[in-house]
Design a protein that fits this description.
seven-stranded mixed β-sheet, Aspartate Aminotransferase, domain 1, alpha/beta, 435 residues, 2 domains, globular, Aspartate Aminotransferase, domain 2, four-stranded mixed β-sheet
């Protein structure tokens, strides 16, 4: 089959799958058309948009979601890692009801924020912590703190990195990014990034990265790359920030603890707040104390819902009664087994597919060979990702259209086996397009 013939066959398969999807989802289509009248593209969160139009979900319970057309799916997306506890964990629901009964927001300090701060600082090895409403806010505040602490203006994110809606570096800086002056490092390129740090050291306030790219394709950082960053930033007075909004779920103390390398600042995300609106940034005392309001020169940090009673209460319960260190290890072992089973499947069928990631975060790619940097994914055919997404939906499996998955605690080994069977069905159906 020539490249042109293969491309034509992919287009035909995708058109057929899209038409079948539309036929099964008339109510979702009607809701989408209604939504486009009041929201651009019928959308208010870009990552949720899928072609030919997105599902509209009406109900969720446990590990399943049910759409407007009454079709039910096993949820492997896990709300992009925020939905760690599933959709209706009884302990989460009990804590939420308790918070609602006590009053939603006090406009005052309260005990639940202290309890959660104690849990978070102890669990993730932080001297001090402050809460925000999202991972985006947490990363913005961490970078701003680094700039104030160092007196320098530039930051170094990584090419292919994602740190929230205003810190997006998939293919260079997004036009909607916050106006930080950036020097883009090269993920897992030890010598190239070392040279960049050296060249800009006097201007750099912070280096920020995920110790495993999440949105960038679940690509783990080379421990030697992380060690170089720690050495160079410490030597040159640059603040090293680990965005652990997602990756902190991969080890009881966060992925940095597994690597044995601690950054100066660390950011956390919504699963720590029980899946509610939540973010946190924290770390070295001398940096975080810049926000101490008892200081005459204290940095301001606003946020009406930073200590909202719902998140503070639910987060404290979630991190102490549900996502214990032992449960964390069990979940990530399940994810490792799933990723290994998928890669064994791809090898057996000799198809150009790979499962990357670590523990409970996995990404499926229509590519073969080693994937160690975002650039390794530049040449993939995104139509094949969409075809996999639609084929899995047809079999009652929900993942991200880009191939991302985050296991929740309520996805069982049997559920993982079901996913492997569904992917195998996709392979046998589309093998000619995947070799």
């Amino acid at each position: 089959m020539t490249a042109a013939e293969r491309s034509t066959r992919i287009d035909e398969a995708l058109a057929e799958a899209s038409a079948a999807f539309a036929a099964r989802h008339p109510k979702s289509l009607a809701l989408h058309e209604r939504a486009t009248a009041v929201m651009p593209g019928g959308n208010t969160r870009t990552v949720l948009f899928t072609s030919p139009f997105p599902l509209r979900v009406e109900h969720a319970a446990g590990a399943e979601i049910t759409d407007a057309d009454g079709l039910t799916y096993l949820d492997f997306l896990g709300e992009y890692s925020a939905g760690l506890y599933g959709h209706s964990h009884p302990v989460i629901l009990e804590a939420a009801r308790s918070a609602l009964d006590s009053g939603l927001n006090f406009g005052a300090h309260h005990g639940a924020e202290i309890a959660l701060a104690e849990v978070v600082t102890r669990r993730f090895g932080l001297d001090l912590v402050r809460f925000t409403n999202s991972g985006t806010e947490a990363n913005m505040m961490a970078l701003s703190a680094a700039r104030c602490f160092t007196g320098r203006g530039r930051i170094m994110p990584m090419q292919g990195g994602y740190h929230g809606g205003t810190l997006y570096f998939s293919h260079g800086a997004s036009p909607v990014n916050a106006p930080f002056d950036c020097v883009l490092g090269h993920y897992n390129d030890i010598e190239g990034t070392r040279r960049l740090i050296a060249a800009h050291a006097d201007e750099l306030a912070a280096v920020i990265l995920e110790p495993m790219l999440g949105g960038g394709g679940c690509i783990p950082a080379d421990p030697a790359f992380i060690a170089m960053l720690r050495e160079e930033t410490a030597r040159r007075g640059i603040v090293l920030v680990f965005d652990e909004v997602m990756t902190s779920r991969l080890h009881p103390g966060g992925l940095s603890a597994r690597l044995g390398i601690e950054p100066d600042l660390k950011t956390l995300g919504k699963y720590v707040g029980g899946g509610m609106s939540f973010g946190a940034f924290g770390g070295r005392r001398e940096i975080m104390e810049l926000f101490d309001p008892r200081r005459p020169d204290a940095l301001p940090h606003a946020g009406t819902f930073n200590n909202n009673t719902l998140t503070m209460t639910v987060g404290g319960v979630a991190m102490t009664r549900i996502f214990t260190p032992a449960v964390c290890e069990q979940l990530n072992a399940r994810g490792d087994r799933l990723r290994e089973a998928l890669n064994e499947l791809f090898m057996r069928y000799q198809v150009r597919m790979s499962a990357t990631g670590q523990g409970s975060m996995i990404a499926l790619h229509p590519a073969a060979g080693a994937i160690t940097r975002p650039e390794d994914l530049d040449g993939i055919d995104k139509r094949l990702r969409q075809l996999l997404f639609l084929d899995l939906l047809e079999q009652g499996i929900y993942i991200a259209e880009r191939g991302f998955m985050a296991l929740s605690l309520v996805v069982s080994d049997a559920g993982c086996d079901r996913l492997v069977r569904a992917v195998e069905s996709h392979i046998t159906r589309r093998r000619a397009l995947l070799v």
